[in-house]
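Propose amino acids for all 402 sites.
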């Protein structure tokens, strides 16, 4: 049974974005300015973003579900206004256009971009104007996901669970990643232009983005989301859809432009023998916080059998390059089927650091869901009692590591 659900609505250049988050228990202290807006700001950053991010300063306005600084158990709805809408009011108007008006003002596009949802969207929804497709397919929608994820992060934080991310590669440039990640990952990387732990690689990544921009091209990359403090036992192996690895992969893969997801050693594990992949179970005191059973390595990425092991949950994702290219790719004109180059819209050259923040949000949503599945209750007090009793039980069995 799913405990957390969310939905978003809104077009990239429409009035704004709407987010509705259901399942958050009552009694969670929540302040938008402190717990939600900082993530929205983090999502706007990163070297390689386009001019749109200079126009927006995303803030979540809470409409329901929070009263006097605390959640009350009802659906939390939030609005994020698009400042840029003022420049698009006519093109995005719900009203029929003036038949005598200038058709250019409607900003219609008929040249689908390879890699974007443009062409398949036009065919599937039987539309003529690509704007009807791209407005919703745009990654602008991820601002609403980040707002929902931030509330889940706040819930998890109460129970000692933290979620961070970092960028491990941009295009062909790979960062050197230390064996042991810093305790507060986001604090270590948020000030970096590419949210990377390797300052040297950051310089080369920036240069690669500059080169791509100069060539009218775009770059993708890889990011890693790490969640720590998770008790063993979230998720399950009993049914395909309760497996937490599958739920995480689906959620992260649903982010715009994500083409690959790995848990722990992921694809690289397939190239090594089992003895070099699985994490030995040890009773060595150094491997754990409290006496008992522990793990010396975490190649499983915190999940065995779709269940958390108590080690950090590690999810990696590959983002393809943004599909709006100034160096226009071959396409067709949807009005007459003639050969034409793809449309160019204002866009980003690289948005991997932003996608990493969205990755954190999706991981937070899935982990909060799994957390409430295990410790469910209607209030923070009730969940705390369930959580504490389970952790005590684990410790008695010698599995206190988190
Ligand atoms: C985005 C807003 C968009 C793009 C980007 C993500 O703004 P605009 O289209 O007005 O420049 O910058 O979306 C895409 C890359 C895309 O392909 O749609 C945002 O808020 O993240």
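Proposal:
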């Amino acid at each position: 049974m799913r405990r957390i659900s969310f939905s978003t609505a809104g077009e990239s250049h429409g009035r704004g974005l709407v987010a509705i988050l259901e399942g958050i228990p009552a009694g969670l202290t929540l302040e938008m300015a402190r717990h939600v807006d900082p993530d929205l700001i983090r999502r706007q950053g990163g070297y390689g973003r386009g001019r749109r991010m200079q126009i927006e300063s995303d803030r979540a306005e809470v409409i329901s579900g929070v009263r006097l600084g605390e959640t009350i158990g009802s659906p939390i709805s939030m609005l994020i206004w698009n400042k840029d809408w003022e420049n698009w009011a006519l093109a995005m108007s719900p009203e029929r256009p003036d038949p005598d008006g200038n058709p250019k003002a409607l900003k219609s596009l008929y040249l689908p971009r390879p890699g974007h949802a443009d062409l398949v969207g036009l065919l599937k929804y039987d539309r003529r104007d690509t704007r009807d497709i791209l407005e919703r397919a745009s990654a602008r929608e991820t601002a609403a996901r980040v707002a929902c994820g931030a509330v889940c992060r706040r819930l998890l934080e109460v129970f000692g669970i933290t979620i961070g991310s970092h960028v491990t590669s941009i295009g062909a440039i790979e960062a050197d990643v230390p064996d042991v990640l810093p305790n507060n990952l986001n604090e270590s990387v948020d000030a970096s232009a590419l949210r990377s732990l390797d300052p040297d690689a950051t310089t080369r990544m920036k240069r690669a983005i500059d080169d791509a921009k100069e060539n009218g091209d775009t770059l993708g990359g890889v990011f890693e989301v790490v969640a720590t403090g998770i008790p063993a036992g979230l998720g399950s192996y009993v049914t395909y859809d309760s497996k937490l690895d599958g739920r995480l992969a689906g959620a992260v893969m649903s982010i715009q432009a994500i083409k690959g997801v790995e848990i722990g050693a992921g694809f690289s594990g397939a190239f090594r023998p089992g003895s070099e992949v699985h994490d030995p179970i040890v009773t060595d005191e150094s491997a754990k916080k409290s006496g008992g059973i522990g793990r010396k390595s975490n190649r499983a990425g915190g999940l065995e059998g779709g269940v958390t092991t108590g080690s950090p949950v590690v999810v990696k994702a590959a983002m393809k390059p943004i599909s709006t290219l100034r160096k226009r790719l071959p396409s067709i004109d949807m009005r007459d089927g003639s050969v034409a180059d793809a449309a160019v819209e204002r866009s980003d050259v690289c948005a991997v650091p932003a996608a990493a923040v969205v990755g954190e949000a999706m991981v937070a949503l899935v982990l909060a869901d799994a957390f409430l599945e295990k410790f469910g209750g209607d209030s923070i007090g009730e969940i705390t009692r369930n959580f504490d009793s389970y952790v005590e039980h684990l410790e008695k069995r010698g599995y206190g590591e988190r």
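Residues 201 and 207 are 10 Å apart (CA to CA). The first strand starts at residue 5 and ends at 9.
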